[in-house]
Amino acid sequence: MIEDSLNSRTNLSELGEFGLIDLLTKNLDIKLSSTVKGIGDDAAVMDFQDKQILVTTDLLVEGVHFDLAYTPLKHLGYKAVMVNLSDVYAMNGVATQITVSIAVSNRFPVEALEELYAGIETASKIYNVDVVGGDTTSSTKGLLISITALGMASKEDVVYRSGAKPNDLLVVSGDLGAAYMGLQILEREKAVFKVNPNSQPDLDAYTYLIERQLKPEARKDIPPLLKKLEVKPTSMIDISDGLSSEVIHLCKNSGVGVNLYEDKIPLDPTVIAACEEFEVDSTTIALSGGEDYELLFTVSQEDFPKIKANPHLSIIGHMTEAGEGMHLITRGNTKIPLIAKGWNAMDKEN
Ligand SMILES: [Mg+2]
């Protein structure tokens, strides 16, 4: 499908590594004063003055983390950046620079990598980060992308997973489950396409779900929003693996328990509709689906008035003493133990 979508094909070997790097990075300019030196020396140089530095990295592997049958390369580049920036925002920080490393087989023409970089460039513009380095090499099979993001925060602003206290409120941004249902739609269309390549799918009803899967947006807006509301979370994490697994991370790192209320979990109406169509339980999807890239955090009870009416935030539970355990309180008021069934990077089924 990559070959189908691109008119011209320049073999990677025609450019050589340095020619390729020059081509791919020619539109990337430096925007931030914290970037002293970007691409073009042995190492990039940054000046964060008195801030603490946040560093996070992610590796995406074709066939494990993405399927090029339905993932446009531009979207893939964009998403690879989002996955990393989301981790910086989850520390209550500001993302500032990224490095991009790719390994690629010669089945990809130069034009395919230009598409990938177009997505990276768009993300770096919208999210105001500088691309300051990386590496490009060949792989025997498929495409690998590794992005490292740098960010900064003042010492008093950094939020860890470990600060939640009993009675703190559990809060999540946005809504959950849409990215996973988007993936189900795309997998179904791929299966249909295999049987009938001439089929013209009507995906209008699923636009939001597919966008959440292919082009997620990291919650850059949440740390400044919390600052404006004068709320400092006691703990925070981003939702990459599914709500239950992230809630458990906060509990274990903070030494607390939780009561999570099923009826408080924010779901978009299109997620509910898709769950009915696929005959799956929407709560299960929100708990285990993953890839939502929303922020999950805890705040002190005192901060309740500051966040209660905010349209971006939902209060979905409260923390308890560790001895009380981690529970989901169902709509029928049954208390069931919360278990991590999140997306597992080592699981071949995914
Ligand atoms: Mg994370």
TrEMBL record:
Chain positions recorded as Mg(2+) 1 binding sites: T57, D58, D135
Note: Reaction mechanism of ThiL seems to utilize a direct, inline transfer of the gamma-phosphate of ATP to TMP rather than a phosphorylated enzyme intermediate.
Binding-site residues for substrate, renumbered to this chain: H65, E291, W343
Catalytic reaction list: thiamine phosphate + ATP = thiamine diphosphate + ADP
Binding site for Mg(2+) 5: D241
Residues that, per the record, bind Mg(2+) 2: D58, D87
Protein name as it appears in the record: Thiamine-monophosphate kinase
Organism: Antarcticibacterium arcticum
